Amino acid sequence: MLSTRVDKWLWSVRLYSTRSQATAACNGGHVQVNGQPAKPSSLVRVGDSVEAYSREVHRLLVVQRIIEKRVGAAVAVECYSDQTPPAPPAELRVQIAVRDSGSGRPTKKDRRDLEKFHRRQR
């Protein structure tokens, strides 16, 4: 087997939980093969570069082996080499103001505090 569909390969190496999620990611523009947007039926071969946005992480993978069936995690890791750059340290990440779930609408004071926080971030 020299090539396979990109959605099938992404599912089989466990980047997406279901094949329909992999297909939706391709249709949504979250997958690129060799720098080009990939349709679900795009073919991948050994040595191709696959960029995918999965679980809020941008991954850069190089295909090492073609598989079409879903395999265990230990085997799946052998099918690609992960070229994803490391995440920045926690102190360099952008802080986001988050309210507790279920706490209702922000009060006027809460809104002013949020606006003050966002002005400091600029």
From TrEMBL:
SMART domains tied to this protein: S4 (SM00363)
PROSITE patterns: S4 (PS50889)
Matching InterPro entries: HSP15, S4_RNA-bd, S4_RNA-bd_sf
Keywords: DNA-binding, RNA-binding
Keyword tRNA processing: no
Signal sequence, start to end: none
The RNA-binding S4 domain, residue ranges: 4-65
Similarity section: Belongs to the HSP15 family.
Name of the molecule in the record: Unannotated protein
